[in-house]
Amino acid sequence: MPRWAGRGGRQRRAFVVGGALLGIAAVMLLAAWRSAGFLSDLLLNLGASVVLAAISYVIFDPLFEEARKARVQEHLSFDQQAFVARLHRAGRRVRILDTWTILLEQRHREETLGAVRAALANGSQVQLLLLDPDCTAAQQRSEELERQRVNVPRQIRTNLRHLAAFSDALEPRLRHRLQVRLYDASPSIQLYQWDGRALISFFPIGKLSFNVPQLEVDMDSPWGGFVHARFEELWEHEQATLDLERYWSVTVTLRHDDSDVVEVQVPYVTVDGQHYVDCHAFRLARPLTVRAVLPPRAPGAAPGVFALAEPADGDRTPAATVVRHFDQKYGPGNGERAIRRLAPQQPGGPRTPLRGGQ
C-alpha cells in the first residue's frame, strides 16, 4: 500500500467525524430555532458547543497525529517474541532488511514462519532483503564479528535454505506475496517493519545488531521515510540485488558438438570467484559443455560457454571447501552430489569430462 494511503485515510476520518458533528450541531440548532423556552436555550448552547468541537477536531486531530508519528520509542534490544506477535496481526506489509535474521534460528524458526504464513493469509506483502552471502560485505561483517565467533555467510545461507523450503511449501495464492532478495552492498540499517510501524537500528562494529538499542518509529515519520527510501533503493537496484530463485539455482544449457541438447536448472555455489554446479540431476556420459549466464546477478548479460571440470585437491580452492559451501547452502548432500567447476571454454578447448583445475 502506498505510504500516502494511510495518511489520506486519517484525513478522511477527520473530515467524516467533523462532518458528522456539524450535522448533529445543525439538527440541534434547527430544533432550537423551532422550539421555545428552556429547551430552545439548551439546544442552542449544545449546538454551538458541538460546532466548536467539530472545528477543533478537524483542526487539531491532524496536529496530534503528526506529534504521535514523530514520537520515537526506544527498546534496549530486539524483542523477537514481540515482533513475531506483531507479524501475526500484520495485514498490509511486512519488510525485513538485515544481514541475516535471528528469527530463523532454531529456537524461533517455527514460530516465525507460522507468523509469516499468518501475515500472508491476512493479505500482507512480505519482503525480505538479506545480505548476499557470497559478497565481500558478508565476509567483512564476519571479520567485524570475529570475537562473537559468527560466520555471517553461513548464517545467511542457513536462513535462505529455510526460506526456500518455506516458499516451496506455501500455497500458490500465498507464495506470490512472499518475496526474498539478496543485496550486495555494505549493510548500514536494520529494518523490521509491520504495517505502519517499524523497528530500526544500525550495525555496530563488533556487536550483533539484535543486541543494541532499537528505535520503534512510525513509517510516516521522517525516520520511517529515511529507512523506507533506503529499502526501496536496494530493492529496486537490479545490479545490487538477486532474487531467491536466481540464488537457489542457475539455468544451464547442455551442449554437445556446439549444439544445444537440453536446458536444466542446477544447484550452484560461487567460491573464490569460481562457479560450481551439481550435475547429479543429469548423466555426464559424453563430452559436454554448458552455456550459462554467470554470475546470475547480471540479467540480460550474454551467456558464456564453460567446460565441466571435476574439482581436485590440487585446485586453487580445495574440493572439500566447495563441498562445504554446497552443504551450507542446500544442506548435507550425503555423498550424492556430482560437483563440477565451470571452466571458461576456449574455442576448440576440451569438453567434459575433465579433472583438475586451471
Automatic annotation (TrEMBL):
Entry keyword set:
Membrane, Transmembrane, Transmembrane helix
In terms of superkingdom, the source organism counts as: Bacteria
Task: Give all residue intervals belonging to the DUF5919 domain.
Answer: 121-196
Membrane-traversing stretches: 12-36, 42-60
Per the record, the coiled-coil ranges are none
Query: Residue ranges of region Disordered?
Result: 328-358
Q: What Pfam families does the annotation carry? A: DUF5919
Q: Where is the signal peptide?
A: none
Record-given protein name: DUF5919 domain-containing protein
Q: Which organism is it from?
A: Micromonospora cremea
